[in-house]
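Working notes for the structural subgroup meeting. M.R. asked for a predicted model of this chain before we commit to crystallization trials. I am recording the input and output together here so anyone reviewing the notebook later can reproduce the run.

Input as submitted:
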Amino acid sequence: MSKLFACAALLVLWGVAVDSAAAHRREARCYARTKDWRAWVERSSNEGRRQLVVAGIVTTPTGLNRRYLKLGSVIGSKHPQQVIDLEIRAIADIATMAVETHEVRGRFAALPRYGSVVIRCNGENVGRVSPVDQRP
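Returned structure, recorded in token form:
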């Protein structure tokens, strides 16, 4: 009887672990809609350094979120693909029913050249810009 109880307990625990892993995967999806991604390289007016500027439109299904871009990894070297991470963080624990649309923009130190810029949200590709414009 104790072996049967132990097996049942293990199955229940395994089921909980599988369910929470599945729930985590569901939560990890990007719940924002995005569009109109643009990327260009320009010289900053203050220091004269080249900066990669990435901008796009982000719509979230609830208010009280902060949307921002974070520099990610670089893939490749001949025609580098720059990954930019779109992060959406709750400002408060309260969820509103207001759909909000905002432009999000980030400035980062530029590489000598780019093949493309890929925007990701929770590991999901939500945008790609190629070619990346070079502005004087």
